[in-house]
Amino acid sequence: MQEKVLLLYEEGGSYKIESVWATKIGENYRIDNVPFFAKNIALDDIVSVENDNGELYFDSLIEASGNSVIQLVVFDESKVESVGAELVKLGCGWEGSHIKNLISVNIPKDKSYSDVKNFLEVGEKQKKWEYQEACLVFK
Question: What predicted TM-score, i.e. pTM, was given to this entire model?
Fold first, then answer.
């Protein structure tokens, strides 16, 4: 059964909360979607939580999945699907957010980051998007 795990992150000098779906694995939880705002957490990471009045807050990383996360803002909202399709061709997964031009990208642990990085750099130089490396794992 999936439950919401709350991730605390800093933005513009203040703290905010993002929720992600997670599945209980023993005493811990496996992250089931790619974070849009929080850093240093990736899809399939195993985390511990603190239960605060029924709300589950991220406590610590128990086991890293080896996946990496890129958070990408596509300037032309109508191009989000085609950008996502290109990322899929590179072996990545992606999710759209409630902010229509913001996507989070999962780079599986068995994929090389160099091809993805080249794609991201070219698009950023062409002013198609901005991206940030939210959680990188290098082999």
Answer: 0.91
